[in-house]
Design a protein that fits this description.
Blueprint lengths: L3 H27 L5 H23 L14 E5 L4 E5 L6 H15 L13 E9 L5 E11 L8 E5 L1 H4 L1
Parallel strand pairs: 2-3
Antiparallel strand pairs: 1-2, 3-4, 4-5
Length: 164
């Protein structure tokens, strides 16, 4: 996966190419070449690509990996404060805690929309298949950002009675 540092290096090379195209476009105007307006367009397009690469170098693409966390699937994301992830049935309390913390660090981003005062929540659920052929959703736990005056990063709540 491409990292922000690699995008920054690509941005530097794209900026050099943009400057070179702008210089060639300037020469085209100085010597009245017939292709001079196309060169201006190419230089402008290169500038747009350079700015796009610069923007990609700010956003971290790397995911947080917490030891002991199991793979999860995001099954619902409201885009604001409600996120639901699916975890395997056979998950232990320690694995669930690590998985919830990993999901929180990967999914709680500043660009999430929401009503002021609304707290973002990641809930972990699994599907339990009962003997009578009915399947039901079981919410095993949830994680929310800790209050600002707390030393913790996240508040994790696990439903221990449903975990078994």
């Amino acid at each position: 996966m491409t990292t922000p540092a690699e995008f920054l290096i690509a941005t530097q090379w794209a900026a050099l190419g943009t400057v070179a195209l702008a210089v060639i476009a300037g020469l085209g105007f100085a010597f009245k070449w017939g292709i001079r307006f196309r060169l201006v367009g190419a230089a402008g397009f290169a500038a747009v690509l350079t700015v796009g690469l610069l923007g990609l170098s700010f956003q971290p693409f790397s995911r947080t990996v917490i030891e002991g966390a199991l793979p999860y699937t995001t099954v619902y994301d409201s885009g604001s404060s409600q996120i639901v992830i699916a975890v395997p049935n056979a998950i232990t309390e320690d694995e669930l805690d690590a998985t919830l913390r990993q999901a929180a660090s990967n999914l709680f981003k500043p660009y999430r929309l929401g009503i002021p005062g609304q707290t973002a929540t990641v809930r972990a659920r699994t599907i339990v298949h009962e003997d009578n052929g009915v399947s039901r959703l079981v919410y095993l736990g949830q994680v929310q950002p800790a209050p600002k005056d707390s030393d913790l990063d996240y508040q994790v709540q696990i439903n221990r009675d449903l975990l078994a």
